[in-house]
Amino acid sequence: MTATDERTYTSDEMMSIAAARALGGGQRCFVGIGLPSTAANLARRTHAPDLVLIYESGTLGSKPGRLPASIGDGILAETADAVISVPEVFNYWLQPGRIDVGFLGAAQLDKFGNINTTVIGDDYANPKVRLPGAGGAPEIAASCHEVYVVVRQSRRSFVEKVDFVTSFGHGSGKGDREKLGLRGAGPTLVITDLGVFRPDPQTSELVLTEVHEGVTVEQVREATGWDLKVSPELSTTEPPTDTELKTLRELKAAK
Q1: Which residues are catalytic?
Q2: What distances in angstroms separate CA 112 from CA 36, 45, 168, 219, 255, one per listed residue?
Q3: pTM of the full structure
Q4: Tell me: the pLDDT tens digits for 178-217?
Q5: Residue 5 above 60 pLDDT?
Q6: Which CATH class is domain 11-253?
Q7: CA quadruple 24, 20, 44, 133: dihedral positive or negative?
Q8: Would you list the domain boundaries of the chain?
């Protein structure tokens, strides 16, 4: 049984569940705080109990009983298989390519999967908005085998060109990562509250491949700041199951 019949779930819940489903058991996942952390912890509590969660603060195999408030939240260390130094996380685990999936959020994302979490506006010194910044995201985007991005979609977040490239996606198109010698494949999946996007294999431009139930292609286009391409094999995301919804809500309610 699913929750579809009563439509009791929100677009944010659908986004988190769709993102969680993308993660597989046994994967090593470098997790960003916020929406990525929600999805990763949901995956571990449902279909992927052996998913290994790695946080930037040096916690390997964390199993928090609630959503961590930050990478420095003590619950990550208390429930980890091991706690190592931050340099070791980056120098031993991330940069040599030992992480399967980097899971990131974004303030702005462009059609080639470049991420901005630094400033909004053209003037770096005097921006319209100064954002939290990079943290470890540029290294995650560069070195993980692949990157998943989860973000709420609007014309403010889905832009033709990001105001600042904090974390490199596919640059200006296919081949740009290779020119820079970047190890990882870059963003291979973007999940929003409206649908799912994947890079075109020929151009690396993001293409709409799934819409969530009840969402139209036109709605997605209206929330996209570029001329969006749609897959000819467009599908509809499976709605949440009762178990997924119950687990997600319990996770978010935990103190």
Answers
A1: 56
A2: 20, 32, 9, 20, 38
A3: 0.94
A4: 999 998 999 999 999 999 999 999 999 999 999 999 999 9
A5: no
A6: alpha beta
A7: positive
A8: 11-253
